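Budget justification aside, the reviewers requested a transparent look at the raw inputs and outputs of the sequence design task funded under Objective 1. We therefore reproduce one unedited record. The lines immediately below are the structure tokens for a 161-residue chain.
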């Protein structure tokens, strides 16, 4: 069998000991990447830290945040909440109770984390979300949520109390 002149030579890899195509430093491609190859360090244009270069003069974390953040968030919302990114953003636009819009958590009204219908999800700021899950303040916070979700129901039910 004739050897193709453009093909790499077959060697016994020093990293794994298997006979594979030579890549560099007497290693196969996988071992070379794992053992010998080191990324060039750069000072990240975004965070200023000296870390391995990913792309565009950025470290890996900043590159993902600046160029792929929407893809990552969309994947995570589908994976963890089974909710589309647009619906998630609509729900967590602001806290239902206080209209805080900086940090908003997703809360399931019926407590079932598998029930991800739009009617079952609301946005709450971390303070109100914590109050709702604390037994000392649950009733008060739940009344406020009910009032915001359905003002007519609240008037009929709680006005006489």
């Amino acid at each position: 069998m004739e050897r193709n002149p453009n093909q790499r030579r077959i060697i016994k890899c020093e990293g794994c000991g298997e006979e594979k195509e030579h890549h560099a430093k007497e290693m196969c491609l996988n071992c070379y990447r794992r053992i010998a190859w080191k990324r060039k360090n750069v000072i990240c244009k975004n965070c200023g830290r000296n870390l391995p270069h990913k792309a565009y003069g950025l470290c890996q974390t900043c590159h993902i945040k600046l160029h792929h953040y929407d893809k990552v968030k969309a994947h995570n919302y589908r994976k963890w909440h089974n909710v589309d990114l647009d619906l998630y953003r609509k729900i967590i636009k602001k806290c239902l109770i206080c209209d805080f819009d900086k940090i908003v958590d997703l809360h399931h009204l019926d407590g079932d984390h598998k029930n991800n219908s739009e009617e079952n999800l609301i946005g709450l700021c971390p303070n109100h979300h914590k109050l709702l899950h604390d037994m000392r303040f649950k009733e008060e916070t739940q009344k406020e949520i009910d009032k915001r979700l359905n003002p007519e129901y609240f008037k009929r039910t709680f006005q006489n109390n």
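Residues 39 and 148 are 54 Å apart (CA to CA). The mean pLDDT is 86. Computational costs for records of this kind are itemized in the attached budget.
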